[in-house]
Amino acid sequence: MHKLSLICLLLASTACTLAQHNPQWWGNRNTIVHLFEWKWNDIARECEQFLAPHGYAGVQVSPVAENIIAKGRPWWERYQPISYKLETRSGNELEFASMVRRCNDVGVRIYVDVLLNHMSGDFEGVAHGTGGSVAEPRAKSFPAVPYTNQDFHRSCEIYDWNDRFQVQQCELVGLKDLDQREDYVRVKLIELLDHLITLGVAGFRVDAAKHMAADDLDFIYSGMRNLNTEHGFPKNARPFIYQEVIDHGHETVSRDEYTPLGAVTEFRFSEEIGKAFRGNNALKWLRSWGTGWGFLPSEQALTFVDNHDNQRDGGQELNYKSPKQYKMATAFHLAYPYGISQIMSSFGFEERDQSPPQDAQERIISPEFNAEGACVNGWICEHRWRQIYNMVEFKNVVRGTELSNWWDNGDNQIAFCRGNRGFVAFNNNRYNMWQKLQTCLPAGNYCDVISGSLVNGACTGKIVQVDEQGYAYISIEADEFDGVLAIHAEARQ
User: Fold this and answer.
1) Each residue of 37-85: pLDDT tens digit?
2) Active-site hit among 66, 113, 207, 317
3) Are 50 and 92 members of one domain?
């Protein structure tokens, strides 16, 4: 065991866990994109050709461990591992390692969605895996690890979500629940994390963290090695941890149990921002967004408008199928100084279980792009929408500045500054917005980065004229393609 990890274990050092809140950004970048179900070679190219040039900080990738082959190849098969071989429909270990290296080389970090809670669920008979392994999930036999019955909690269902025992020791939707208190299981999980760290990843999204005791996760995280300095990480840097904990404020197993260990997914952010931009809550109330709404402290909250689960659930959360409201919510997400931001990049779906785009042999197909750079063959690629990638740049430009000069019309028109670096305005009313507002920017002509971009010194969209006192006339008509306008210091003619 590594020296720093041993110190963490023996002294329960808070410094080690606090370090796990650091996403290890490169430069001023500060937005993660989830390239859901993308192949490793495609991610590597995207890092080099699009993500790095447009200022993205990192990529959350789909689970890397060998999973069952399920009929129809639903997306959730990736969440049913049968071994820890790095062999999935996204690629093999060599391709994964190459992707991590290529992305790190251009300053884009890789975060792996890891499955520490469980193995595959109640599969009838022998299950076959994407790496050629076999298992008998119903018998809790996973010889490629190997795991046997003694490595799991006893089989039981979760009926009462306010019963801690059921939530943390019974089987989530039938998935075989590992016993993280067993030394052998802990060793196997730490070995998996260490192997990925050696390959150069920057951290982990921990799936179903709520279904594991925080003390057990603390032991596992503390046992991990430091990040690999050969991939450009500082000496003694700890992996970034963000944990899936669904907590709407009335859960027996609370998000607060996990915040000392790393960041936590703030699902209420997703729900409330959806309500606001769907028109079910006035935008004026967003002035106190963040902790004022009962959310986690900013540095502990992993925030998103939607993720791969809740975009399919049909609730208040927005997704790509409501593009105008989705882009407005995403712009607010990236403009308001709260949380560790993650952008969703989806594939199109009509059914909840639908597979990612695949060919007749059930192989995932690579995204294809049109002349404007948008995806055209079943992939949605929200991260390539101009209104979103330009707001990622906005977030980079205003990093470290405070919100100031909030304005609203008492309803669904709002605007605010980010220091003297950026200004953003929103119109979610059914009537036009026309206001003279303080932008906090120096005098000049600025490109609205929502309707266009700054290209060769000229604006391809709206031009906003800021006067000597920092004021500008801001116009957003009710029937415009986008209901938001944004300008910043690095998009000036």
Assistant:
1) 999 999 999 999 999 999 999 999 999 999 999 999 999 999 999 999 9
2) 207
3) yes
**Domain limits at 475?**
403-488
Q: Residue 5: what pLDDT?
A: 46
- The answer to whether residue 292 sits within a structural domain is no
Residue reference for tokens 């031009």: 463
Same domain for 472 and 358, yes or no, is no
Same domain, 420 and 369: no
12 pLDDT exceeds 70? Answer: no
Task: Say whether both 454 and 360 belong to one domain.
Answer: no
Query: Could you tell me if 11 and 138 lie in one domain?
Result: yes
Residue 327 predicted with pLDDT over 70: yes
Q: Does the active-site annotation cover 122?
A: no
Is 389 a member of any domain? no
> What's 374's domain CATH number?
3.20.20.80
| 375 and 412 belong to one structural domain | no
From the list 42, 113, 151, 244, the catalytic residue is 244
Reduce the secondary structure of the chain to three states and give it as a string. Answer: CCHHHHHHHHHCCHHHHHHCCCCCCCCCCCEEEEECCCCHHHHHHHHHHHHCCCCCCEEEECCCCCEECCCCCCHHHHHCECCCCCCECCECHHHHHHHHHHHHHCCCEEEEEECCCECCCCCCCCEEECCCCEEEHHHCEECCCCECHHHECCCCECCCCCCHHHHHHCEHHHCCEECCCCHHHHHHHHHHHHHHHHCCCCEEEECCHHHCCHHHHHHHHHCCCCCCHHHCCCCCCCCEEEECCCCCCCCCCCHHHCCCCCEEECHHHHHHHHHHHHHHCCHHHHHHCCHHHCCCCHHHEEECCCCCCHHHCCCCCCCCCCHHHHHHHHHHHHHCCCCEEEEEECECCCCCCCCCCECCCCCECCCCECCCCCECCCECCHHHCHHHHHHHHHHHHCCCCCEEEEEECCCCEEEEEECCCEEEEEECCCCCEEEEEECCCCCEEEECCCCCCEECCEECCCEEEECCCCEEEEEECCCCCCCEEEEECCCEC
10 pLDDT more than 50: no
397-442, pLDDT tens digit by residue? 999 999 999 999 999 999 999 999 999 999 999 999 999 999 999 9
For position 429, which CATH number holds?
2.60.40.1180
Residue 303 belongs to some domain of the structure: no
Domain count, the chain: 2
What pLDDT is recorded for position 16?
58
According to the model, what pLDDT value does residue 249 have? 79
- Residue 244 bears catalytic tag: yes
- pTM of this structure: 0.95
16 with 59, same domain? Answer: yes
Residue tagged 């969605």 (tokens) = 113
Residue 273 lies in a domain: no
Do 366 and 453 have their domain in common? Answer: no
